Protein 1
Amino acid sequence: MARDYAAFYRRLSAPFRRHSQLVTALRVANRGVEVIMYGAYLVMLAWLVWLGFYQGWASVWPQLWRLVLIPGVGFVLLSLVRQRLNAPRPYEQWPISPLITREKTGDSFPSRHVFSATVIAMAAFWFDWHWGLPLLVLAFLLAIIRVVGGVHYPRDVVVGAVCGLVVGSLLFL
């Protein structure tokens, strides 16, 4: 961690603080990426359910279970690790005012938002790389947003993304 994270964060967030529209755009982007990612996951699940009705459940059940079980178990395990570590958020340790308003304390490491977005992007790759690539870019964007927004340290989002890549890659086994 930087010796003076507050100074680093002030430099990082300064362009946004100079233009209130950028703060609004950052918050909208944060929420928008969340909605897109969770929406994409629901579309993938719905697609498999539709295929089950159309093509028969025997060919779809294994895929549907993988798409639910692997990300779900990964999410639960990551949540347990986060809870156990209970790492403080940047605004708890440093005199900073985050751009993304958050009242929660602890559970910063690793980032569950970035983990989830990355796992969903990997699931989309499992379906079709045309879906996966843009969603992976959005997961990367979410990682940047969470750091610039002041709710995570860079290490939180990097580890969240790596964990998401590892768990998501299990879909391909």
Protein 2
Amino acid sequence: MNLHEFQGKQILASYGVRVQRGHVANTAEEAVTAAKQLTEETGTGWHVVKAQIHAGGRGKGGGVKLAKNLDQVKEIAGQIIGMDLITPQTPPTGKRVNKVLIAEDVYYPGDSETSEFYMSVLLNRATGKNMIMYSTEGGMDIEEVAEKTPHLIFTEEIEPSVGLQGFQARKIAFNLGLSGAAFKEMVKFVDALYKAYVGCDASMFEINPVLKSSDDKIIAVDAKVTLDDNALYRHADYAEMRDTTEERPIEVEAKAAGLNYVDLDGTVGCMVNGAGLAMATMDLIKYAGFEPANFLDVGGTADAKRVEIAFRIILKDPNVKAILINIFGGIVRCDRVAQGIVDAYKNMGDDIKVPIIVRLQGTNADLAKQIIDESGMPILSAIEFQEASDRVKEALS
């Protein structure tokens, strides 16, 4: 689950990470009120107006601007709220901005004593360990840094059984070229950041930039946070932070129906039970010379109602030219799944206008094939993977 910047900063602050302070606003008028409140709290005279969407690169698209007085706060907030912000991480049409963060200006005019760093915490799947990635090149896209100056990117892996050690935090501060009070502040920052990452069951924390101010404070100026959906049952307060307006409507609908769905760019829709089988099915589609239109795991049950909901979600994608159903009957019997597919097909009638290929393997697979073949429905059945691949080619040829 992705969070907005202001939400990520709330979590960071709760773990003792120093953050750029601010207040969120939904209108230009609220932005002025937020700016006045922030001035009272921090003494800041200038304010940064930051679009709140689930995408990076907002500054490049005009979504982050400096306001030097309240009139500019109102004007800029009015321009940003309601705009379709286009960044390298948004769809080509952009994302609609519904709120802005009014943040304190932590850069002092004419100050040359500040430095910007990049820092993120994430899982290194190759080693199964959490990793802190950091660089002296803050404020830049880390991909660009990796391409042009890879020697400026450092990593520190954390042994799961012992957690982040003091010498590792000190090593990070040393590699960033810090000394004195800034060194000590960075050690505290890294320790608090890692505790936040572990404590809230995050998948990723990305702070770009981390600022060293001229008075040696270490501040998280931005916060890109992704939480592990599977751990949200432990964090009811974080679950309430989900902003469904930032997610694809079709994925929101699938989640509400209890389906694991990810929208993709291909032409062959997938309906599968089990994530591993779903990945293999997507490989099967690519092997056949096509691209999957989605990842859809219906879970351990596949009755008529659930199959019908899955059908309707898949068919909302206008790019889908065929649907491949690949079910392994372990917990659920294949004949019940087959009957569910036939019943769902009948219920939907003319709504299904694309070929359906069904591969059912496992308990009562032969009986399931018989049900499909004798249904009178224009459904292509298969037993083996290769046969299913051939059926996909046949349907789309």
